[in-house]
Amino acid sequence: MKKLIIAKNIGFCFGVKRAVETAEKLLETISSLYTIGNIVHNPLVIEKLKKRGLVICNSIEEIKGKYFIVRSHGLSKKEIEKLKKENKKIFDMTCPFVKRIHYLVENWNKKGHYVIIIGNKNHPEVLGIKGYGAKVEVLEDKEDVEKIKNRSYNKILIVGQTTLNFKKYLEVIENIMKKISASEILVLNTICKITEEREKEAMKIAQDVDAVLVLGGKESSNTKKLYKVCKKICKNTFYIEKFLDLNKIHYDRFKSIGIVSGTSTPYFFIDEVVKYFKKNKYKEVL
Question: What is the DSSP string of 116-148?
Fold first, then answer.
């Protein structure tokens, strides 16, 4: 029997679900809704919303309409304040876990802590977090830390991008401790538990199947990490962003296939992929 193992933790997380559903509801009554950057990192979701009236801009200067939705990754405080000054009707869909980091950075910075963010320097979530502090630095990996000359500070706060791998987060922190000295170093666990749980489940599935399909957008940070952790365990791991990507796989050689997804992957796409394999005589194992 050909087996299909589907992750229990799959599809939208709470923050993404809230952002997408809010955008859909707003677009039922207004003709256009503006945002800076994609509200979620999934091309299938964005394509559907754009057809309904979502307008994606690169800067505040490009916004022509009144209604504005803040993406799930958040925006900097300066950008939010500028939108308010322009009397935009703002719907803030920043993920609650990201919102918490905004508060922490702003609050501890005011208390005199130099802030170090561990994460992708160009990721919209990190750019938004950075915009809530005056004395802030972003370190991406161990290599970034190695470039630091020995420094001394009074007080330091260390936070991480929500979608980081927890093990990597700890490794970078360990290296920071060797390079920087301070009278007080406050390290906070800001990693989203949902992404942690998905990684653990994905690793377990990867051990039990012949192939793993990781469903999600190529720009999604947490989906990329799922792909990497699964690939280390199961060499037959495939990144599936759109349905046509399935054509690249000679799945007949696999007796068991696992399906996992990032937190911005829509259920309609997951269902489409699952139905496809069920039609090809794969039976879901609960």
Answer: EEES-TT-HHHHHHHTT-SSEEEE-SHHHHHTP
pLDDT tens readout for residues 221-262: 999 999 999 999 999 999 999 999 999 899 989 999 999 999
> Is 125 part of the annotated catalytic residue set?
yes
* CA atoms of 36 and 165, how far apart (whole Å): 26
Amino acid letter, residue 158: I
CA distances from 282 to 159, 245, 258, 271 (A): 43, 18, 11, 14
Q: Give residue 120's Cα distance to chain centre.
A: 11
Distance between CA 223 and CA 131 in Å, rounded?
Answer: 25
List 28, 86, 125, 196, catalytic entry = 125
Nearest partner of 195 among 165, 170, 224, judged by Cα:
165
Same domain as 114, residue 86: no
Can you give the CATH number for the domain in which 151 is found? 3.40.1010.20
pTM for this one?
A: 0.90
Asked which of 94, 112, 136 is the last residue of a domain, the reply is 94
- Find all residues with CB under 8 Å of 223, minimum gap 6, and list them: 41, 214, 215, 216, 217, 239, 261, 262, 263, 264, 265
The pLDDT of residue 209 is 97
The contacts of residue 193 (CB under 8 Å, 6+ apart) are: none
Residue 64 has which token pair? 């022509």
Average pLDDT over residues 181-210: 94
* Cα 54 from Cα 127, distance rounded (Å): 22
Q: Is 141 helix (H, G, I), strand (E, B) or coil?
A: coil
Question: 148 lies in which domain range?
Answer: 97-187
What are 78-106's pLDDT values in tens digits? 999 999 999 999 999 999 999 999 999 99
φ, ψ of residue 68 in degrees (nearest 5): -135, 135
